[in-house]
Amino acid sequence: MTVQFHRFFSTHTIYVTLDDGNAYKLNPKDLSREMIDQIPNNTKESPIMVLHKKQFDMAKDYLMNIDSPFRILVDEAEDYKDIGFISEKEFIEYKNKIQDIN
Question: Residue 51 — left, alpha, or beta (φ > 0 → left; ψ -120 to 50 → alpha)?
Fold first, then answer.
């Protein structure tokens, strides 16, 4: 898991929403998902972060463009694959493109 996710897990519980309309709580150890009925309210005592696949999809072409100065790292792409934001095929294609330019 990249520093990006690790840092937030130390202070927040992370939830994701996917295209299937369901919400999931992420496991901080391996980014596995546990389906939940409803995302809890954010409080000072129990801060949460919610990541929406639809929002990621809007930025995906930019974040996974190998010519973009703000492209994500391969490790970050793997995290997004693990939480269900990109497919295995998209991840492998991105990883291969990055390896080809290095």
Answer: beta
> Taking Cα atoms as reference points, which of 10, 8, 54, 15 lies closest to residue 38?
15
Query: pTM for this structure?
Result: 0.85
Strands 13-17 and 23-26: antiparallel
| 9-41 tens-digit pLDDT | 888 999 999 999 999 999 988 889 999 999 999
Structural domain boundaries, residue 89 = 3-101
Q: How many residues does the chain have?
A: 102
Number of folded domains in the chain? 1
